[in-house]
């Protein structure tokens, strides 16, 4: 049989799903099993069995194994390279955003913006309410902007700085920020995933949002309650230490409310639907100008010229030393170079995902899960598992929505279920869990931007891991499961 008859491509919103009839389920699973075993071994050995870039090498090794399997199943090199090319094209803008976020962190540090956020935040956000307040603040910004990424790159960075100064675990803070950010990302009509999920399922945007609120609202309420309990039971540095921190920040930087013009401008640009690259670029430029105006002493102390200090802040490591040991780590930034580890991880993940898609492994695994959907609950469970699996295998939340959306759409119709059941499940299990996978583009981004490893914030990203359980709970007890039509 000709190779072209065995491999068919279905184009969905510029995403391709390849079905290879030559490939069996065990061959599709081999790269996944090897990847999981190598990553688990790497973690057990401290995460650097092959140096700093161990995870990146492991993804490439798994990709090479996938290519060998594809070769023996009549998949051409051209097909595999084409899929990798498409995957890499899809992350070009996110990579550029990551570079700009690195530059943003550096310029916002030397301009005094981040220190000012920490300074005023320490006076407003007490330890007793900090974590639940972080969830709410991140949720509001994310609903307004439609982007969890923008939320983390702006208020997320500030909240981690403030919370760290209060002596709160960075993992807890990042978990609270991510929980709020992904709640807003799910519920905002401006979010790309919130628009993509109903498109794949065959329903409209606002029907999807209203129906999604049924599981999402209880989940965020539980999240806020849990963080409130945690806040009441954690030990922090206390008011005396905060006073010392405030004094050190004030003596090191020129702190003024005028510095908030820059972050407010960036948020306003995002609200007016300015492209993220442009908005963040303006944020970097404005911060550089403000650094010359307000922090000339800081700049002159970092390098032989103020201009060189700004350039270093954009591209390489910058560290501002204070009299307080706790603030020294806080007042350091890696610039664009600090984002390279994350960017390399995303590129390697996209290469692995491209190989998996090209040989038809993603389609084969999803189809096998579909066979398990003999009951209504089984259908929901299979969809959830498919989304979780694709977030780990394809390393991309969009594929974790697109592929199950296409594959399970008819199954939901056959079970007499309205399409919003599918769109809600795609969001509850595809969108929000992407950040829990270290090599997924979302997990790599959030970890890189917030400076907190996925392993540190995983358990505290309560909203994210609780969401798929909530959607399964509602399905198990047939709570608000809308029928497509009345049963005869």
What does this molecule look like?
With 488 residues, the protein is mainly alpha-helical. It has two domains: 3-87 and 341-476, no CATH class; 92-338, no CATH class. 73% of the residues lie in helices and 3% in strands. The protein has 25 helices and four strands. The strands form two sheets. The chain has a two-stranded antiparallel sheet with strand order 1-2. Strands 3-4 form a two-stranded antiparallel sheet. Strand 1 (7-12) and strand 2 (15-20) form a beta hairpin. Helix 2 (25-44) runs antiparallel to helix 3 and helix 5 runs antiparallel to helix 16 (306-315). It is globular. The model is unreliable at 1-14 (pLDDT under 50).
Nutshell version of this structure?
The chain has 488 residues and is mainly alpha-helical.
- Class derived from helix and strand content: mainly alpha
Q: What are the secondary-structure elements, in order, as H or E? A: HEEHHHHHHHHHHHHHHHEHEHHHHHHHH
Rg from C-alpha positions? Answer: 23 Å
Number of strands: 4
Oligomer: single chain
Compute the average pLDDT. Answer: 84
Major sheet size, sense and barrel closure: 2 strands, antiparallel
Q: Which strand order do you get reading across the main beta sheet?
A: 1-2
First and last CA, distance: 45 Å
Q: Uncertain regions: pLDDT < 50 for 5+ in a row? A: 1-14
Q: How many distinct folded domains?
A: 2
Helicity, in percent? Answer: over 70%
Global morphology: globular
Count the helices. How many?
25
Strand content: under 5%
Labels describing this entry:
2 domains, mainly alpha, two-stranded antiparallel ribbon, 73% helix, 488 residues, disordered N terminus, two-stranded antiparallel sheet
